[in-house]
Amino acid sequence: MKANVMKLLIVIVAFTFLSSCTHHLVGVWNVNRFETKTPTQEGAILQNIGTIEFLKDGNGTKDIHYTVLGLTQEDKIPFTWKWTDNKYVTITSEGSEFSKTWIIMQNKKNFQQWQSTDGTEKIQVLELKK
User: In this structure, is residue 102 part of a structural domain?
Assistant: First the structure.
């Protein structure tokens, strides 16, 4: 009976360890809100513009489409991602508006809010929902 209890404990510990290694960012997220703003100009707020999928292996896919000032933008460029210190997410995707390091403002299981800047006064806010 002791052997069965030990086997059961080993299985429980292994399951807990393996499930905790899966990052909660992994999965498909709806781009609920994408905002661009500067202190001197009126900003642009876009809602429900597509999806971003974060894969366990650090890769991902995007299916983003929106229209601003009559110009239609589409982003289906694959990307790589890296989560650092629960403070930053870096997306690398050549030619994509989302390719940059984002500061994590809110980090919840079903909601993410990130901010970034282009090095000038332009600030971008990205809200993702599962």
Answer: yes
